[in-house]
Amino acid sequence: MVKLDQHYVDPRLVELYDIENACGADTDFYVRLATDLNARTILDLGCGTGLLTRELSVGGRRVVGIDPAPAMLVVARRPSSLDQVQWVEGDSRDLGEPAADLVIMTGCVAQVFLDDAEWATTLHNIHTALRPGGCLAFESRNPDDRAWEH
Fold first, then answer.
1. Given pLDDT bands bounded at 50, 70 and 90, which one contains residue 23?
2. What is the pTM of this model?
3. Domains contained in the chain, CATH given
4. Spatial contact of 41 and 99, defined as CB atoms under 8 Å apart
5. Per residue in 66-104, pLDDT tens?
6. Using CB atoms within 10 A of its CB, is residue 136 exposed (0-12), middle (13-18) or buried (19+)?
């Protein structure tokens, strides 16, 4: 479905990913959102190396981290002995039956869909995976901010 950039598939680059993408204010936001929504089951679509996924599992939440990049999941699986975390290699087609209270797409995940059909399919799959009253939360980076210069 989505073509993966080299920094998501090259194991040498994946090893450096968490150094450049450490937990921060966005992590706090998603953990607070999960708490505020009393979300017990969370799907982290595009979980990458699983930093946020593991943070969300604290407090007994069941969290599923889904990512299409096997190298990212190798890193994600390393420190996790948490029973609440399940790691899945895949994309929105692998979200499963309606069971999630919250689906998240952080970082640039929502920007990898190159055409309207991919975006519509992804949103449909997310809608199908959410329980009635469930929530989708995602972010989009503003290229005009030029964050790479800061």
1. low
2. 0.78
3. 25-141 (3.40.50.150)
4. yes
5. 998 888 888 888 865 556 689 999 988 888 777 899 999
6. middle
